[in-house]
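ENTRY TYPE: paired fold submission
RECORD: A
CONTENT: sequence, then structure tokens
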Amino acid sequence: MVWPAVNAAHLFDSHARFQRFRSEAPWRVQVTGRGEAVVLEEWRSHLDVLAMRGLWCSGDRVPPLVEQVARVAAGQGYGRLLSPLVAVGVAPVYERAGLSVHGSIIALRLDRSAWKPEEPHPAPGVRLRQVLADDLPALVRIDAECFDEFWRYDPDRLARYLMEDRLVVAEGPEGPIGYTLATIVRDSGTLGRLAVKPSARNLGTGEALLREALSFLVRTGVGMVSLCTQEENLASRMLYRKVGLTELTGRVVFLMRQTGFAGKRSRE
């Protein structure tokens, strides 16, 4: 029953993967007798945050469903509950459920027909290549340098992306200095990550990684590529616009609330 909504939201690239997700932890898919549903997933393994990847119900039903999900989150040992990405105009509905805005996000898009390919030109001494399993510790370190605790990826998540998606690393004389994550769900591509170590920035590496990832996605035949970045990340927004991505009108936000769980989440 839930799959058509999950499929339309592009949360999983296949019914089989969604079924596997649910079978591994059935509590992550909640359905009410009214036909309402929510899909839940741990946000990051180093945080006590449970994310609502999707919530399907009428606006007046958001507060009681959030209360129900908060109890589920607390029962699983999570201290905080994160909303799906929602339009600013929808945020008051979640605020009535006790959530507060945690971050403002800009969505960008590139239609395949608008892509103007250009050969990536990394800095001298830097080469781009696909990530190997041995690169994972370096990617974890790069993420920790580039992003705060809320946004950085944990080793398990990066290892999963290595198996399921496409990671490309920029490698300098002393090792990896940046990387991209590109994912494809049916006819849509997503740039999930563009990260370059602060000490290696402003040398063209970020643009080279970005162009390489976009070229790959377009070559696979996707109709459009999307990505999200923090509103305050002005340098990245300028780079994305430079290569042809267009910022969508409106803003989307994450909201967060406490669940009432006061203990320490077990990682077993």
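RECORD: B
CONTENT: sequence, then structure tokens
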Amino acid sequence: MRRDLLIGQKNEIPAEDTDSPVFMAVLTSIYMYLFIIMLAIFMAINAMASNWEKDIAGAITVQISPIEDANKQIDAAKTQEQLNKVQQFIEQVAGVDDVRVLDEQVVQKLMTPWIGNKVDFSTLPIPQLLDVRLKPDADLNYDEMTRGLKLLTPNASIDNHRLWLNRLIKFATSLKTVALAILLMVVAICAFSIYYSARTSLNINIESITILHIIGAKDDFIAKQYAFDYAKIGLMSGIIGLMVAVPCIILVGKYGVSTGSGLLSGAELSNFAWVLIMLTPLFALFYSMLTSYWTVCKTLEKMV
């Protein structure tokens, strides 16, 4: 009989190779780190795409180009008059929930990343912008709305964000697909490592297993011995991977996403996502246990 190298649990199968448990613990810890990181990336991208759908798809922007004639004060008054008419018209459109005029400071802040902060905005023909929020499941007739705006003023135009939103959604879907593929690949490689390790251990300890068979031990008993060992390895590896991965996720969220564009602001992990991440050691435990149990049972069937 031996004592398990990692935790000290008694095992009925003598160990001929004492390095395998340590090697598998290190290897599985790396797998779990990669698994947790890719799981976080997948859920962050999913949250970001959902945020786009909620905030961008449920809104349109109406732009009123400023009138530029001879007198700036008269032009500003005419532009303001057109803005008021357009706002009143949009408020009466079915499906519109709220209409808000963006002030100059907000517009300038939106334009600064594109033209820089050294430009004198007072010299630019900055358009007036209306942020139009739609009701849930609103079905606007954009063609009819555009014609109505053109009757009020030729300077008004609509941007419903749909074209570039669809491109963003396709991009996010591609990223999710890649993240999911890597996630599944890590799981598959981990399973193969457990499979190969368990088979190797059986071959190394074939004499001890033969003796156990002679004295009446069943394949199920031997498989449970291995399953218990690999369950401990999986749990410990999951905890180690979690302890390393969580600080990385927090740092990326704090210093990476927070300094990016507004589009990335929705890439935040929800409470449910954090619960899943914290449960990964249990997943590693059961995954390692079941994989090793199945491997040993199938291998012993072929040995008999």
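NOTES ON RECORD B: Confidence is low (pLDDT under 50) at residues 1-10. The two ends are 23 Å apart (CA to CA).
STATUS: closed
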